[in-house]
Amino acid sequence: MTISPIVELEQLGKVYPTRTGDVTALTDVDLRIDDGEFVAIVGPSGCGKTTLLKILAGLEHHTSGVGTLGGRELGSGAADVGMVFQKATLLPWQDVRSNVLLPVSLQRRPSKADRAAADELLEMVGLTDFASKRPHELSGGMQQRAAICRALVHEPSMLLMDEPFGALDAMTRDLLNVEVNRIWRETHKTVVLITHSIPEAVFLAQRVIVMSPRPGRIVDQVEVPFGPERTLELLGTPEFGALCSTIRRHFEKEAAA
Predict the structure, then answer these.
(1) Helices 112-124 & 140-152, crossing angle to 10 degrees?
(2) 207-211 sheet: strands from edge to edge
(3) Threshold 0.85, pTM exceeds
């Protein structure tokens, strides 16, 4: 069975004009992401990872090349995506359920079905008992779980995650990675993750995209051979360590150059 791509990018580029001259953030990016695939993007700081994510989200416009999302040209309208940022950015005066429903509330009055969908998502991430709590009553990890629910409540075709667990402690981060893997398997969403953590990328993704220093371009695409379900035991296996080392060598070469 042929899987259709949800994202197709060809020779995509992004240039920012500044008072001292143009700054090229991305150049000649060719990328295909299949429907339902989990892709992670890694690269050094400033390589354009977040810029690429913003272009997919419709928050930035590319300046060269072509790209489509769900068959529509990038930038031609509101992107059918949900976003999770490094900070949960929940509204402090709203309870957790209302925060999850925010994308719906911005468009219309939430219906009974919308509230049921929010409650189902909260149950999926173990936050049912916290639906009426304010964000400050939740731990950082719980706030990020709520943020993931908010990104999924309007049933987007793709979930974009920009360093969502970078501010959390290592143990919480590992547990949330297991949670994200489970959510991906249960929802069958296409996911694009930006991360500075090579182990996180390998643990979560089916394919890891490696980007060069600015101007960012794709220098490698590494297939991850592990099955869809990932457990923390995987982190200690020789195969996992070897794959992380393969990806890390790209950055060691850059550092030595």
Answers:
(1) 140
(2) 81-84, 158-162, 190-194, 38-42, 207-211, 218-223
(3) yes
